[in-house]
Amino acid sequence: MDISVLSGSALFRGFDETEVNTLLGSLNAREKRFRKGAMIFHSGDVISTLCFVITGSVTIESNDMWGNHTILNLVSKGQFFAESYALLPNEPMLVDVCANEDCTIVYLDMKSVGRLDESMRVKLLANLLTITTRKNLHLSSRSFHTAPRQVRGRIMAYLNTVSVQKNSREFDIPFDRQQLADYLNVERSVLSNELSKMQRDGLIRCRKNHFEIV
Amino acid sequence: MDISVLSGSALFRGFDETEVNTLLGSLNAREKRFRKGAMIFHSGDVISTLCFVITGSVTIESNDMWGNHTILNLVSKGQFFAESYALLPNEPMLVDVCANEDCTIVYLDMKSVGRLDESMRVKLLANLLTITTRKNLHLSSRSFHTAPRQVRGRIMAYLNTVSVQKNSREFDIPFDRQQLADYLNVERSVLSNELSKMQRDGLIRCRKNHFEIV
DNA sequence: TCCGAAATGTTGTAATTACAACATACTTTC
DNA sequence: GAAAGTATGTTGTAATTACAACATTTCGGA
Predict the structure, then answer these.
(1) What string of DSSP letters covers chain A?
(2) Contacts B84 to A, Cβ<8 Å
(3) What is the pLDDT along chain A (214 residues), one digit of tens a residue?
């Protein structure tokens, strides 16, 4: 198992290499690979493992019975997912998790946290708290992206956020057109159309998933 | 200060009355009252206090420069808010917090957590973790309510959630029409209109904020 | 390089929503 | 209890979006 990415993660901040190895053992760390498009978790699953993305990326999705397909979040290399369900035992998942590309996931069993000695537990809990708190802010950012009533406003809200994150007017986004549409809660064709108009209006330039804000 | 509500809260689970009093001192607990409609925090504020609703309720809102007004969450008596900003120092708030009705708020300074002795800190961190994790699930529930493309779908998604929470087909909701519209991200008049249609179609019955799913 | 599959772009029409304007009902205050 | 103010319901029109159908581009194998 490649522990370099893991030991640099927010969860193990403040732990040295030896401690990380001990923790990985205590938390019964397991690695698993998925092919692009594979389902990692299904809505309704009950889990107790925190998940870490070693390579690739996954999408958190809501798929309801009327065919509405919504992407709530994209989790990329070096980030965690399923914290909520790992830390609240018996809460069935309300979302699906899919491999957005070929990826490697490490599972960490949170039921074992109680058995750690107190000094390790304090540090781990503090790190977990930072992770869930940051995830909170991240989750609400989607609300800002879907808050504008019109498609153009949503696109701009999203692109602005990415631009600020990447600290540049030119950047790649992790979504293809269909995924961006599902994330912004609009029709794919309407999204394509609006992107064309925005280019004609000189607001942006884009080609595939590379964007530039003019 | 009325500590009975506080000591029964998720934050102080596992602490006895004496410990709660000690903690309230260590965390520099302060109480403040607000009139309905008052702004408790503004977007851009930097805070380090966890906030607890003793009486009344508050709304978490996003108000952008184009006049879009969106309600992200309603926090009622016995619940916490601003955890994310309290726990991540120097993160400026992205939302406004408003008094939804006359209310009493207790501020708890999270900068002081590091000074607690270890056994108390572990318990407090574990409780904070539960709070933020639950808040995570709660935040994503709004995504499910706004996922349907059409107004009727959003209304039903929301009413179903409330119905499940209250374990009854008949219940009150905490929003008036304008607020419900802002929460579901639709026009107020369209919402009113759709509610009328749904009553004519025999799906629901409602009067003011009392609803019944038929 | 060619083919087929998948992704993206374009267009037109039907359906839905936004918005404004107004009617009605309910509340609060004096 | 009347008046004023607020909340809710209704309606029509303009604007936007959904949806379907098809054109074009891109990308990976054969």
Answers:
(1) --HHHHHTSGGGTT--HHHHHHHHHHTT-EEEEE-TT-EEE-TT----EEEEEEESEEEEEEE-TT--EEEEEEEETT-EE-HHHHHSTT---SSEEEESSSEEEEEEEGGGGGGS-HHHHHHHHHHHHHHHHHHHHHHHHHHHHH-SSSHHHHHHHHHHHHHHHHTSSEEE-S--HHHHHHHHTS-HHHHHHHHHHHHHTTSEEEETTEEEE-
(2) 133-134, 136-137
(3) 677 888 899 999 999 989 999 999 999 999 999 988 899 999 999 999 999 999 999 999 998 877 789 999 999 999 999 999 999 988 999 999 999 999 999 999 999 888 888 888 999 999 999 999 999 999 999 999 999 999 999 999 999 999 999 999 999 999 999 999 999 999 999 999 999 999 999 999 999 899 999 8
* B145 CA – D27 C1', rounded, Å: 37
* B190 touches A: beta carbon within 8 Å: no
**Pairwise CB contact (< 8 Å): A137 & B88:** yes
